[in-house]
Amino acid sequence: MFADTARIFIKSGNGGNGHVSFRRELYVPNGGPDGGDGGDGGDLIFEVDKGMNNLSSFRHNQKYCAENGSEGGGKRCHGKDGKDLVIKVPYGTVVREAESGQVIIDMSGDHLRETVLRGGRGGLGNMHFATPTMQAPKYAQPGKPGQELWVRLELKVIADVGLVGFPNVGKSTLITRSSNARPEIANYHFTTLSPHLGVVEMGYESYVMADIPGLIEGASDGAGLGHDFLRHIERCRVLVHVVDAAGTEGRDPLDDIEKINEELRRFNPELLKRPMVIAANKMDVWFDDGSVSPVERIREVYEPKGIKVFPISAATGKGVPELLKYLFELLNEIKTEPIVYEKEYDVDSLQFDELPINIYKESAHVYVVEGQRVEKMLGYTNLESEKGFNFFQNYMKEQKIIDRLKEMGLSEGDTVRVAGMEFEYYE
């Protein structure tokens, strides 16, 4: 089964803790601090693998974590850096923040290898904290935690031309006739469950054509596999409506075109602004009963709008070369760049200044301060050292946490619980 979406958890490595140690050598009874720094955590990297064509490998593994940095050692030894984790994805994969849906990175165009989460920096060893007044510091800096995030992966097909239309109108046959693609073809609705890409050769040049799986009414609302299919159309520069002009299943081709256009409009109105062409297929089985040709009916409606109509038979190949040549000329005229989605979500927002701080009064003399922002700050701070505790107090003032607590009625002797740690407040 084709898989074009996945939801996974990603995390860069934590930085290793700094080390506390002192020189212990013969004839040096009072050696100075020599604790080394912790290693940096590994980065989490997305990389395009052009040999992949779906996201099925993410179905059974949803957690991806880079390696943590190692703790520093004595004799100024630096801890080992954590290994980066490289996640391979198909070309055209869009990485989105899971909750908001905002784009983190679009793995297409020039974005073939991107660092999405950076590892936490290693903490400093105690050798960095020696001063004239503190010659034997017994503390070191903890390593900084890595970044973590739930993301949604979406694979959007990269193609110049997208074939759209109801099931069983001949899209798979047309792409087989036009290119080197060899999709399975059968007389069933929803036979094609995944887009097929084919390269259409035009002398020394070529373009890519995609057979977008058949749509149904309500696809824009998610009916059937509507959203999964419509997603692939967004990359295409030109859209080709393939219709059963002969009406072999009793449908009216004009009505089919209108219904497909309505689904495109409801999913993304910008799609209707793309150049369009209509391929009136199955003309080899149309029975001329003396009535107006279906091709002429379609032309009367759409050619005044600048939409070219080609009568073809994908089965016999009649009319297909003319269609392919026109598409090639049209692509050369519009010369639009491949669609690459702009970054919307800044991963750096995972840092302190964007994380929420929740403050509330639990009881008459107990106040609570919690949230990832505070928890991360405490992870960097050694409260057992005078320097670390001063940093903590200054942080509470600078972030206006003390002011907010006072507004709630905080007074001397009250208890303030910060991320699970209790402190008694004094003026």
What is this structure, in a nutshell?
This protein is α/β, with parallel strands linked by helices and 427 residues long. It is 19% helix and 23% strand.
Explain this structure.
The protein is an alpha/beta fold and 427 residues long. It is 19% helix and 23% strand. The protein contains eight helices and 18 strands. The protein has helices at 171-178, 226-230, 253-267, 294-302, 320-334, 372-379, 386-398, 401-407, and strands at 5-11, 44-48, 63-65, 85-89, 93-97, 103-107, 113-117, 148-155, 161-164, 196-202, 205-211, 238-244, 276-281, 308-311, 358-363, 366-370, 415-418, 421-424. Strands 10-11-9-12-13-14 form a six-stranded mixed beta sheet, sandwiched between helices. The chain has a five-stranded mixed beta sheet with strand order 3-1-8-5-6, with no helix packed on it. A four-stranded mixed beta sheet has the order 15-16-17-18. Mean pLDDT is 82; it is low at 183-193 and 218-227.
Largest beta-sheet details = 6 strands, mixed
What is the 3D form?
elongated
Uncertain runs: 183-193, 218-227
Secondary-structure element order, as H and E?
A: EEEEEEEEEHEEHEHEHEHEEHHHEE
How much helix is in the residues?
A: 10-25%
**How many helix segments?**
8
Percent of residues in beta strands?
Answer: 15-25%
**How many E strands?**
18
Summed over residues and divided by their number, the pLDDT gives a mean of 82
What is the end-to-end distance?
A: 65 Å
Strand order of the largest sheet: 10-11-9-12-13-14
Structural class: alpha/beta
Rg, Å, rounded: 31 Å
